[in-house]
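ESCALATION

Customer reports they have been waiting on this structure for their group meeting. Please prioritize. Original submission:
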Amino acid sequence: MILISACLIGINCKYNGKNNAVPFLDNLPKHIVPICPEQLGGLPTPRPQAEIILGDGKDVLEGNAKVITKKGNDVTKNFIFGAKQVLKIAQVCGAKEAILKAHSPSCGSGLIYDGSFKGKLKKGDGVTAALLKKKGIKILSEKELFPHHCF
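Update from on-call: job pushed to the front of the queue and completed.
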């Protein structure tokens, strides 16, 4: 089984109520499980844009950074709860890999938005990506799967 960010397969669960559908993912194997950590964490769709400030997902899980919306609301607990729910799903279905949305404060792997809400990136993982990596689940993004395509 492979987890996949639901927004990547056309499910409207992105913060703005839309999706990040990647047509190249239309022919995925049938053993995928769509997940949206932010929805699983109790956040609505659409919802205010959020970014991690003063660290990355690992720091959030350790209590040293926060996830804040563009309006300044703290949604850290939602992001942590959602990440834990995704981990439970991974464990139940035996997932060893996940294809997650690049740069997301939940799903980003290697690079995430820097907390300025200006589209700038910093090194680090999103909250869910950090937790899954810690538990030995391999993380890939759509950008890693299809490096020569513009998204």
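Sent to customer with the following note: The helical segments are 37-40, 57-61, 76-93, 127-134, 142-145.
Escalation resolved.
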